[in-house]
Amino acid sequence: xxxxxxxxxxxxxxxxxxxxxxxxxxxxxxxxxxxxxxxxxxxxxxxxxxxxxxxxxxxxxxxxxxxxxxxxxxxxxxxxxxxxxxxxxxxxxxxxxxxxxxxxxxxxxxxxxxxxxxxxxxxxxxx
Length: 127
Prior knowledge:
The chain is mainly α. It folds into 2 domains: 82 residues, Orthogonal Bundle (434 Repressor (Amino-terminal Domain)), CATH 1.10.260.40; 35 residues. Helix 2 crosses helix 4, helix 3 crosses helix 4 and helix 3 packs across helix 5. The N and C termini lie far apart (63 Å). It comes from Pseudonocardia cypriaca. Keywords: Coiled coil.
């Protein structure tokens, strides 16, 4: 089986989404992750935005997982389509719980603002 065929069985979009979400949760930059994982900024950028989906060395995904505070095999599980469970520490961490709540509230507020903007735009279009 070629790398291209294997890549078809792998969910690089989910890996990119997991990385983006985790970076947002932890407020880490690409440079932070690259430095902690000891990888190039280009590699982090490619993974975060799924710019070059291709087979990567297992050590690469392990390094990114650990840099983001996950177990070494976390992103590999995501890549295979598994739903890895968060660390016990993450589940009980009051700061992460508060951040999740704030994130939900911000999404709700953003949705409300967009709805208001659409209403105002529709009212402005009426003669």
